[in-house]
Amino acid sequence: MRSIWAVAANTIRQAVRMKVALIFVLLLLILLPTMALNATGDNTLKGRLQTFVSYGLSLTSLLLCLLTLIVAVYTITSDIERRQIYTVITKPIRRWQFLLGKLLGVLSLSLALLVIFAGLIYTIVIYAPHYLNPTPIELIEADNEFYTARKALSPPEPDVSKEVAEARERLVKSGDIGQIYAGMSSREIDQQLTNLRKVARRTADVGHQLLWEFENVRPRDPNGSLFIQCKFYVSVTPPDSEVYSQWLFGDYRAYKYATPAGGRLLPIRRKDPIKTIREIEVPAKLVADDGYFAVAFLNDPLNDTPIIFQDDIKLLYKADTFTANFIRATLIILCRLVFLACLGIFTGTFLSFPVAILFCIVIFFTATVSGFVIESFDYLSSETTIAVYSYTIKLLVGLLPQFDKHSPLNYLVPAELLSWSVVGRVVLYIVCIKSLLLLILGLIVFSFRELARIIV
Fold first, then answer.
1. pLDDT by residue (tens digit) across 171-212?
2. In the chain, which residues have pLDDT < 70?
3. In a domain, 392, yes or no
4. What is the DSSP string of 44-81?
5. What is the DSSP string of 283-322?
6. How far is 3 from 307, CA to CA, in rounded Å?
7. Which residue of 11, 54, 153, 450 has the fewest C-beta atoms within 10 A of its own C-beta?
8. What is the domain extent for residue 417?
């Protein structure tokens, strides 16, 4: 173990002497405070905080990921190319100890920098209200919608398969399917019909009602608040771009099943702008004892236009603190750094520095957009192309960690709960499986690599 720590200490000293590491650190020290002063968002406290966290954490993650790759690759390839490794290998140290020491040194440096700059971002965010002079309303909004960790619940996905089958059968009988969906495959037609039926489920005609029901709602504070997040569009835009609505919140089962027993219901009448995300705050005590909660929406006749919800509404309630959520988000970034350090060590065992760093950067950016790549190919129409893609590109991309799937910003910016179960899955797949596999491959390759030839 002493040999591993000796190699790790030497790796840290080697990385500190690199000018690129100093440049990256200086960039973060300059840009993070600058972002904090110039972030505007929607000019509210919450908007400025969301903008700063989004750009600040993205920049920190990007620069630390690139720095980890560069240091991991350089520390192996430079020792081999400059033949400094000869003086190490000739000593009583095994090759696996040498690689583990390199990895430990790279991760120690990355962890230290991550803690420093994540701590800087956290400090700026916590003390931002002291120098931004927000209004009392902005402070309440930031406390409810940013300085928290809210669990997000969505209603169950509606099953429209029967309606789609009936619609398809009607089109076939009428002979209109060839005209309306000309040139589309059977899969594309079903997808179009499914999307239409789902939109219809989220559309309220004038005087009509929509109902969303939630189960297992367990607010952290029963005396606190729930937040209903929604965004809607209209067929005909009103002159002031706002619509009237009538809402009911609480235990709707008495109305739904026409029974005398029922929980509390809160009626609210509102006027909200269209094409804008809105959050409606209601008391958490409206949740039934068994965790049931319903949201009913009535399209007020004053609107004279159908109202279309862009997506299903979300039910949000406080489940943890901002500090705990921020720590878990930092752990997600650390998992990325672990994978990239293992990737850099692995490629450095058999490639030169330029080739290895180019390969690693391609892998890094592919992993960053892997979710988008996989989803984009889901819209292919040709069955042959889909089959070829499934066994080539999709398979290869699937082997990489999907950094964009569990991005910390997806949780911190909207103040949604990043649970320990999500962090556990990320640790399992990225660190325990994929990173460990790269490390084992690197150890195998390096153990069989010929570092020097004996010439007689």
1. 777 776 766 777 677 777 888 888 888 888 889 999 999 999
2. 84-92, 176, 178-179, 183, 257-263, 371-398, 450-456
3. no
4. SHHHHHHHHHHHHHHHHHHHHHHHHHHHHHHHHHHHHH
5. EGGGS-TTS-EEEEEEE-TTS-S-EEESS--EEEEEEE-H
6. 68
7. 450
8. 2-148+321-369+404-448
